Each structure stands twice: as structure tokens, then as C-alpha cells.
Amino acid sequence: MAISKQSVYEPLTESTAISLALRLGLFPEGTPLTCREIGDGNLNLVFHIVDQNTNKGIIIKQALPYAKVVGESWPLTLKRAVIESNALRTFASYVPEYVPKVYYSDESLAVTVMEDLSHLQIARKGLIEGKTYPLLSQHIGEFLAKTLFYTSDFGLNQQQKKQLAQSFVNPELCKITEDLVFTDPFFDHDTNNFEEELRDDVEALWNDSALKLETAKLKRKFLTEGDALLHGDLHTGSIFASDEETKVIDPEFAFYGPIGFDLGQFFANLLLNALSRNEEEREPLFVHVEKTWKVFRETFSELWENHNVETYAKVPGFLQEVLDKAFTDAIGFAGCEIIRRTIGLAHVADLDGIEEKEKRLNAKRHALRLGKTLILKRESISEIQEIRELFAQTAE
Ligand code: SR1
Ligand code: MG
Description:
It is globular and about 60 Å long. It has 14 helices and 12 strands. The longest helix is centred in the C-terminal third of the chain and has 26 residues, at 318-343. It has 2 domains: 14-115, Phosphorylase Kinase, domain 1, CATH 3.30.200; 121-393, Alpha-Beta Complex (Aminoglycoside 3'-phosphotransferase, Chain: A, domain 2), CATH 3.90.1200. α9 (260-276) packs antiparallel against α10. Helices cover 48% and strands 13% of the residues. With 396 residues, the protein is an alpha+beta fold. The strands form 4 sheets. Strands 1-2-3-7-6 form a 5-stranded antiparallel β-sheet, sandwiched between helices. A 3-stranded antiparallel β-sheet has the order 8-10-11. Bound molecules: 5-S-methyl-5-thio-alpha-D-ribofuranose and magnesium ion. Magnesium ion binds next to loops.
């Protein structure tokens, strides 16, 4: 679908978003439409447009030329909108059931028009309310195994893979992750944000050279390894869910990176939710971590056996080597994500929303110990069930 004249970027309002939807022919002229800006993320505008007659809607997402969470002082490329719509389309070619349909995208307006998922709930919100989403780990395990396998050198021939990787070079958004996940929280940097009562714990972390060395190794993997097309920001706020359905949204951080990264971010955000719960309510989160890995491993292995285009695929031990590395890296990346969501720039409502101060501070101290342990011990962890043991051991 094309719009008649060349679009010029300007941030949409609720009223110009309706005009755009009509201009695109997504609703017949004269349809009674309502529009609300519902973006609650760190970076973008999100408009929900609904036909009052049918109650059917669409979403128009627009990138702003700066990071909303900080303000206009932090300029940010609009190209991320193209990355996002292309990533959604690429993922849809492998797992259409796990991503919203993209109806239209426009590079100059930095918009992606997509399926309305308002019958689902953002998984972070639901998990904070105590929901468990029984199929979440089955779906995310499959989503990750298929998208990572089919965009890697195991699922694509090397020429196609390199061309795809080229179209997902995403330096500005990767830099956000390099800084906010892998660097700033481990140094006394002005982007950090934590309660003064945590200062001793945070300073201990800044002075821990063993931790810094292991984090440097993980950052290097993120900087240099281009295994497969990643979502790049797979926290529970990037997932819509219900008891039956799961949809992954917001892949504006997509790029070619290490296979374990998305797994690690997802594990971390499940564990951050577990940290916010009372002990007796944590089990569903541990089960999700374990099942995500199990489903990922089984699905990836099945694809490896039946669809691998790499000549060395059948060499005994190669699959195990790839899985072992993804597992170890994922645990380390999870540790970095837990630490940065606790003391870095972008927090999570799971922890910040704990109203009672002592309880919140204790959960955050536990998060810092758990994150550090996952980074330092990742190479000696061989079974996913060990994560729940480390969670318990780092409680006090
Ligand atoms: C300035 S952006 C802060 C965070 O929000 C995004 O969702 C990413 O997680 C990023 O690190
Ligand atoms: Mg996002």
C-alpha cells in the first residue's frame, strides 16, 4: 500500500494518526474512529485507533527522533522503525503465529502500522498482577529456536545470511545496549539510577574486578559475534500474552548477534519478576525459565537434524557445542540484564513497584547478588535447574 505523495517526518498526534489511517485506506472514509496514544515504553509513540462500529482496531507505532525516556537531549535514529518492521516481517516468515501482522510501514514517517493486540496483555504487567501464562515458555522457546536457527548459517546459505545481516546493521540501538546493559551499571556512570541505601552494594560491584573481567567478555561477545538475527530487547514488556496466545513485539533493537542474548534477556526478566514475588509464588517463573530452555533446545535440535544447510552439521558433537555455548552465554547475559534493570537507567516495574521500602531494597540486593553469581558462575552451570538453586543461595 502506498501513500500518494512523499511523506515528511513529523511526530503524529491522535488526530493526524487518524488521518494517516484513513489516507492509507485502512478504514473506509466516514468510519467513526477514536484514537489514543498508549505508548508506555521508553522510546516511541503508539497510537491505538478503533472503529467505533465494529470495535476493530489497528496500531500505528512511530519512532521519535530522541529517546522518550530521557528527552530531546538524547537523539536517536529514526531508522529503527525500518529495522522493526523488517524484523517483524522476517520473523513472520518463520513464526507468523508469534508476531503481529504488519499492514504498512513508511521509512520517512518512521511508522509501522500493525495488528491490534489489545485482546492480549503485556506479559510484564500480567506477571506483576500474579498471572502465570501457562504457554509463555513453550511459545517463546519455539519463537527463539526457529527465528535464531533459520536466520543463522545453519538455516540459510552463507551468502543469504550475510545479505540479511547487512540489512540489520543497527549501530545506534546496539550502542544503547552496549552502554546500558554491559557498561554503565558496572562503573560510576551518570546514567545509573539507584536508591542511596544501595550505594554500598553498588560500589562493591564497581570495585569487583573479577566481575568486570567476566562482564567485559560478555560485552565482547555482544559486540563481535553475528550468529543470527536477534530480537535484541526481549524483555517481558516486549511480549503480549494471554493464557492461549503469545506475540513478540518491538524488535527495533534487532541485529545479528550471539544466539544466547535473547534467551538471556528473557530468563532475566522472568527472574526479575520472581524476585518481586513471595517465595511461595515463584515456582511458575522457575518453570518458565526451565521450559523455555528445554523447548528451545529440542526445537533447535530438530531443525538442526532436518534442515541444516551447513556441511559440518552431522559431525558428532557440533550441535552440542553450539547449544552449550548458547546456554552458557545466555546465563551470563541474564546476569548483566538483572543488574542493569536494578541499578541502571531503565528499571522494571516488577522491582520498582514493590511498595514496602525494606522489601524493595532486599529484592534489589538479592537481584544484584543473583546477577553477579550468574555472570561469574556461568561456565560451571550445566543444567538449567541450577538457576533456581542459585536464586535460593543468593537470597541472603
Ligand atoms: C534509552 S532506552 C532504555 C531501554 O529501553 C529499551 O526497551 C531497551 O531495553 C533499552 O535498554
Ligand atoms: Mg521496546
